[in-house]
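step: validate -> pass
step: tokenize input -> pass
step: predict -> running
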Amino acid sequence: MAQGRSLISNGNPMEAVVGFSRAVRVGNFIAVGGTAPVDADGRTVGPGNVFVQTKQCFEIIRDALDQAGSGLQDIVRTRVILTDIDTWKDAIDARRIYCLDARPVDTIMAVTRFVNPEWLVEIEVDAVIPD
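step: predict -> pass
step: emit ->
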């Protein structure tokens, strides 16, 4: 792929309203933005369960990477953002399912809350497709 910029959408109507993309690919680099634990209808998946919510985030991320011509194996960085830092172990147990082979670097942090208070976690990833 040339160094062009490709915008990856998952059909969220807020993309056009707010002006964001699920992911952006430039050359071999892909950035996947803060991914919330929602289903195709925008409903929260796994209310009250960080493990389930983290898995849902990674399923959405996997789809975005696939659309960008990449995959979980190309992830080089993850950012796990939690509303309760004490739930980090459940989030990392779910992250491990998707990142064990790639073994990316990781940042775990806590915030006060997300736009939807049912969300306990959001995930961001960066991926690089090898030449």
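step: describe -> The beta strands are 5-8, 23-26, 29-35, 75-82, 105-110, 121-128.
step: cleanup -> pass
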